[in-house]
Amino acid sequence: MKLVTSLFLLSLVLCVNSQSWFRESLDFLDQARQGAGDMWRAYWDMREANFKNSDKYFHARGNYDAAKRGPGGAWAAEVISDTREFLQGASFGRNVEDSMADQEANRWGRSGKDPNHFRPAGLDPKY
């Protein structure tokens, strides 16, 4: 009887833990989805603004907004930022300095620091 009771309690605990894990996984994925949306919005704002020397600001802002969503948003921002820099050829020696500066702005935003640190003078206030 003790064995059956112990097995029942163990299975109950595992079931509750697995539901918590499942819920946390869904939350992480939702944060990642929203964070990717934040990154996309920052990208389109950058294209729309078409303002000289504003790319670092938009990098920092996209990463900042995504990271505010939680661990999933921060993860999405890091993956998107790293992939973007890799695909632009920075890892092959082209534009290394610019890529390093972009990555610094990305890390700045993900760490929760104010993206306005990179905001150029004269950028439209709507951004």
Automatic annotation (TrEMBL):
GO terms for biological process: acute-phase response. Residues 1-18 form the signal peptide. Residues 104-117 have a biased composition (Basic and acidic residues). GO terms for cellular component: high-density lipoprotein particle. PROSITE patterns: SAA (PS00992). InterPro entries: Serum_amyloid_A (IPR000096), Synovial_Prolif_Regulator (IPR052464). The keyword Signal applies. SMART domains: SAA. Residues 98-127 are annotated as: Disordered. The keyword Cytoplasm does not apply. Keywords: Acute phase, HDL, Signal. PANTHER family: SERUM AMYLOID A (PTHR23424), SERUM AMYLOID A PROTEIN (PTHR23424:SF29). Belongs to the SAA family. Major acute phase reactant. Apolipoprotein of the HDL complex. This is Serum amyloid A protein. The gene is LOC110218991.
